[in-house]
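Lecture 7 notes. Example A: sequence first, then its structure tokens.
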Amino acid sequence: MSGHSHAPPPSPAPPSASSPATTLGYALFATRWLQAPLYFGLVAAQGVYVYKFFYELWNLILRCVTGQANETYVMLAVLKLVDVVMIANLLIMVIVGGYETFVSRIGLQGHRDQPEWLSHVNSNVLKVKLATAIVGISSVHLLQMFVDVHHTSHHSLLWGTVIHMAFIASAAILAYMSGPMADRSDRSHRGHAQGPVAPVASSAPVPPASLVSSVSPVSSVPAEFLLTAPAPVSAPVPVPVQAASSPYDSYASCDSYEAGAEARIRDACFPDRKLLEEFDEEHPRVFDREAVARLGKLDFVAARRNVVFVGRPGTGKTHLAVGLGVRACQTGHQVLFATAAQWAARLAGARTDGRLTDELAALDAHALLIVDEVGYTPFDTDTAHLFFQLVAHRYERASLIVTSDRPPGRWDEIFGGAAPAMVDRLAHHAEIVRLEGDSYRMRRATSAWAE
């Protein structure tokens, strides 16, 4: 089959661990752990700053109580406290981000307090954040000089301003240089991952309707996910139009861009048409609106990152997943939606027919796959392995949206022994959004009964 020629090449067998080159490489790689004590030393330094903060705060309180603090002293003391906090923030950024980047990954996937910046930290991001933090600290120091200008020499003010401007210039240059480097890396990854897409789409198309024919109809999605009345098909979402030359857009020959978008929405096999604008943001008790707004820009699709919606049934996970999928269709991406059970049946059928590799390669034509209802049914070992192959194949290649009733840290209850490796790849470049609250469907049903 032509699909074989476009499947990703098998990974070369690793060299024997007994070879001198391999042993030397492993030894050199293991030296990264020499940095671990350095980060624990920074933890101790952070403890020193905690002590300094409360020492300065205590002195400020004592002077205010005894009437020895004038307005200038209070302002300088508060600025000194802010300075200590900003340096502590810089320390924690270096400790956590540096350890994660250069020593070993920290297993925070699914943790509700995971910092937003940690999910996409790398050396470029870390350097820019450090530079901006240094600029902030320098700003506080310079402000302290101006507040206490009567006791600060003109020479100190001049050089303080010059140094601060040098920090600003260096941070701007670093941010500018990091942008092109990230773009080149992104284009390199995209060229590697998407190179075979066009031949696959032309020689071995996979009509989304095959998903319906091989598994149960998508209309079997539980009613608890149909959170609001469906929007009229003619109602467009006001999103920026993406160029028709997108590698995922196979509808450039349509009479209009809108017709192509409607075709992509139809072929995505959504259980119903849901828009992000229709989501009832007041319903969930816990809901990260900023994260969803950020996801609505669809940058995660271009960056080949993943999204995991976690929450009880009826909290709106499927609505948000479909809303993002519809918006992706309208911006030129091909999307495919199915429940976890339907994906399991599709992949199992491909494996039975001996074309699992071709199936995974053909799915590369879709910028976004949505896997709904993970956790409602536990899977046997063979099926769990199929899901691992799907996640591993799309790792840093294309995006996944997954909805589940439990966080990834508990997916061993669903996928057994395959869960750790699957979560490692899925959550490495993922935005995890938690929704907590009562079932929207049950709330509406309760209101109807009360009437």
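Example B, a different protein, same format:
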Amino acid sequence: MLASRTRLRGAAAATAFAAALIGVGAQSAAAADWPALREGAYLYSGPTGTGTVTEVDLHDLGTCHTLSAPARSLQIVSGSTALKLYSGADCTGALAWRSSSLTQTNLPWAMLSYQVVTA
């Protein structure tokens, strides 16, 4: 009886481990198109982290920055700051969008300017 319990526990552990590996594999495949996550904030001129990269100074709170090329995707890894992006130059425009402090996403429309804000 003890041997069968041990086999069942071993089988259950192997099944759980296999399920975890499948989940990690699926997550890695979905994220494969993006650059690796790294601390900081990056705006990309193309979708899914492609094109020209603009590195954001996360210590420059509140200053408006106009981009030379519109941003179409972003990646940010920060514990305390986020980005507010605008559809127009000089932090204007009819459309604005705000990130969280941990975001990797395609933007809903092209963004021409941004500010660093507290999360």
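Note on Example B: The CA atoms of residues 44 and 53 lie 5 Å apart. Strands lie at 40-44, 53-56, 65-77, 81-86, 96-98, 102-118.
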